């Protein structure tokens, strides 16, 4: 097993303000956008001049085994399933390749774009035995580059339909489902409509996975189904849906919801039989059926657990159709009805089984059927991988990525006119507490790339070895992994008693901040050196200082000084505690070009291809500066002082900035340090 990947303490994470509201990062990141736009031409010329396709391992990812779980939800079951797979693969691999390097596992967690990926990422097990990424999108579509997966898994997801069959809601259709909210099995026309939709969805799933799986790859699916010859209403799942339907009818009688709403409501679920699946799978040309079997189910064992189970699954469906205000009443009524009919309920036919029951099945399947000599473990065909570190929630990350993709395509097409076009796999990284939900909703359409979100601190390893071709990061590397301990120690010469940041006027404070920055950059470079292929490029944009300029003499430093003075005033007003302010320092450091040059000369992995300053154009009004600072700093303030002071702090900030604005705009300009590195052999 490769080394575990430690997730950093979330208290040290400072994500930008999430969501898309007034004070969020997304609409208040014009400074960063200007920086990204300023280096657009630089990115283009850098790729044209320095990217050598013949030296890049575009078709290979060394010793990486890729697993995807489709329909992951928020955990923990997806992690149990993945860990079962990893253990089984390791067991077989180690028995065959005792003297070879161990596998590195990359796991992709997929679900709809509106899935709560933020919660999923916070639930990731520690220490991790794999490199994790979240992939938003409907699994009935392509989500991965060709031949990029070795094992596909899905549990309790395939029975969800992509849409309700149109016929069942059409009052003029023989399949109008007027007396039920699901496919009971008692109407042949309704069954046929649901079955046809399921077959379409399943065919799309198989066709797309056929493109994404390597030849010899395995797919393990767990589908809640029906015993042959049993109607859905004769099973536990069907009984649950029937109870739900009767609750809706009762709520109409109580005047809580409209009858028309209920008539138009059908559950997007279909439970196939084993025979039905066998017929469907026989028609596909890509997969052989190695094993198909029925397993008995163990459903929740009490009224409370049944109700909680159903609410967890159905709440979003109910909310979308009837509104959130109906949910509590619905499931209170549901619990009463299940309780009243519990004896009858437990006598229903059993469905099919859960995750723990397939653990041994997964193990024996992999032992018997996974043929490593036939898998393309070291190769991913024609895929070009890009990672953006410190992505936040968009839109700047998408602008930067699209600039890179266009430049790569331009050069590749000029050299490989008769070859298949590249497929781009883009990984968006930020701290585990970043708002990935908003990021995924902001992905531009149509997509020119396959997208994945990677949670974690970029000072650590986040990707398998030699798996990236280009790394990008804008306005992120100047964030420190932690506050230097010396600056908060009252006995240290570097105690930063009169400031909340590295002003530049105390040599000891500057040295402490600089040392921490150097450690962080070294860790960043060492981690990326393992992840980038030889010949791969790294393009970084770092907010810095002109040589010889103190931080407080620049716009960024002035912003931090104003914030510090606001905190002092809030102490005088009794809004915050003085000790809290004394203990507060910003986890930011703005290096000079000279400082970066010295630091980079000491690294053995990257050649410095370009390093140059770009003039910074800061927000042009008091309001825009304030919004910019709030979007960046709100989470830092929340973590140290609590969210109740944020609004007052930035009201005061705007007043102070307005009073000195003419002096403010005369400050020394910051610079954006544009840095291009190439991964070299050592």
From TrEMBL:
UniProt cross-references to Pfam families, sorted A to Z: Methyltransf_7
InterPro entries per record: MeTrfase_7, MeTrfase_capping, SAM-dependent_MTases_sf
UniProt entry keywords in alphabetical sequence: Magnesium, Metal-binding, Methyltransferase, Transferase
Gene Ontology MF terms: metal ion binding; methyltransferase activity
Transmembrane segments: none
UniProt-listed GO biological process terms: methylation
Record protein name field: Uncharacterized protein
């Amino acid at each position: 097993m490769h080394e575990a990947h430690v997730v950093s303490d979330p208290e040290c994470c400072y994500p930008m303000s999430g969501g898309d509201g007034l004070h969020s990062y997304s609409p208040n990141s014009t400074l960063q956008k200007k920086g990204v736009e300023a280096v657009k031409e630089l990115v283009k010329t850098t790729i044209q001049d320095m990217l050598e396709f013949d030296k890049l391992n575009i078709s290979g990812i060394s010793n990486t085994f890729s697993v995807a779980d489709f329909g992951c939800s928020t955990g923990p079951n997806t992690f149990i399933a993945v860990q079962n797979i990893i253990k089984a693969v390791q067991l077989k691999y180690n028995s065959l390749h005792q003297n070879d390097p161990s596998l590195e596992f990359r796991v992709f967690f997929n679900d709809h774009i509106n899935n709560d990926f933020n919660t999923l990422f916070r639930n990731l097990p520690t220490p991790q035995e794999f490199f994790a990424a979240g992939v938003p999108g409907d699994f009935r579509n392509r989500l991965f580059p060709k031949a990029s997966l070795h094992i596909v898994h899905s549990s309790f997801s395939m029975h969800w339909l992509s849409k309700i069959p149109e016929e069942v809601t059409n009052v003029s259709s023989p399949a109008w489902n007027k007396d039920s909210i699901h496919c009971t099995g008692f109407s042949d026309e309704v069954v046929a409509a649901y079955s046809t939709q399921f077959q379409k969805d399943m065919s799309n799933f198989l066709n797309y996975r056929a493109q994404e799986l390597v030849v010899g790859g395995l797919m393990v699916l767990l589908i809640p189904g029906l015993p042959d010859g049993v109607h859905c209403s004769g099973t536990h799942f069907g009984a649950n849906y029937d109870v739900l339907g009767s609750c809706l009818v009762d709520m109409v009688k109580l005047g809580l919801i409209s009858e028309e709403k209920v008539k138009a409501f059908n559950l997007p679920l279909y439970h196939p039989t084993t025979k039905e699946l066998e017929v469907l799978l026989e028609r596909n040309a890509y997969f052989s059926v190695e094993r198909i079997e029925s397993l008995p189910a163990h459903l929740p064992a009490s009224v409370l657990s049944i109700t909680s189970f159903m609410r967890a699954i159905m709440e979003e469906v109910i909310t979308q159709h009837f509104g959130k205000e109906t949910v509590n009443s619905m499931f209170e009524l549901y619990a009463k009805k299940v309780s009243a009919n519990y004896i009858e309920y437990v006598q229903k036919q059993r469905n099919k089984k859960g995750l723990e029951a397939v653990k041994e099945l997964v193990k024996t399947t992999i032992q018997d059927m996974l043929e490593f000599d036939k898998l393309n473990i070291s190769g991913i065909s024609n895929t070009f991988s890009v990672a953006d570190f410190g992505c936040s929630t968009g839109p700047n990350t998408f602008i930067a990525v699209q600039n890179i993709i266009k430049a790569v395509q331009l050069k590749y097409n000029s050299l490989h006119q008769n070859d298949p076009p590249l497929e781009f796999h883009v990984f968006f990284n930020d701290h585990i507490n970043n708002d990935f939900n908003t990021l995924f909703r902001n992905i531009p359409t149509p997509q020119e790339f396959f997208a994945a979100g990677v949670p974690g601190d970029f000072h650590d390893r986040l990707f398998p070895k030699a798996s990236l071709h280009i790394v990008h990061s804008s306005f992120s590397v100047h964030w420190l992994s932690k506050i230097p301990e010396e600056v908060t120690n009252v006995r240290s010469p570097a105690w930063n008693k009169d400031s909340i940041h590295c002003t530049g006027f105390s040599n000891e404070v500057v040295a402490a901040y600089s040392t921490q920055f150097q450690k962080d950059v070294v860790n960043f470079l060492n981690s990326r050196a393992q992840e980038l292929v030889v010949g791969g490029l790294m393009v970084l944009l770092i907010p810095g200082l002109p040589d010889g300029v103190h931080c407080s003499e620049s716009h960024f430093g002035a912003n931090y000084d104003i914030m510090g003075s606001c905190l002092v005033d809030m102490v005088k007003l009794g809004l915050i505690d003085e000790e809290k302010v004394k203990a507060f320092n910003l986890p930011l450091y703005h290096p000079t070009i000279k400082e970066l040059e010295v630091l980079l000369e000491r690294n053995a992995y990257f050649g410095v291809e370009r390093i140059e300053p770009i003039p910074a154009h800061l927000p042009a009004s008091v309001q825009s500066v304030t919004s910019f600072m709030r979007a960046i700093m709100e989470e830092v303030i929340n973590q140290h002082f609590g969210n109740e002071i944020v609004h007052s702090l930035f009201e005061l900030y705007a007043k102070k900035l307005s009073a000195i604005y003419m002096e403010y705009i005369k400050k020394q300009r910051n610079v954006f340090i544009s840095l291009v590195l190439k991964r070299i052999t050592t």
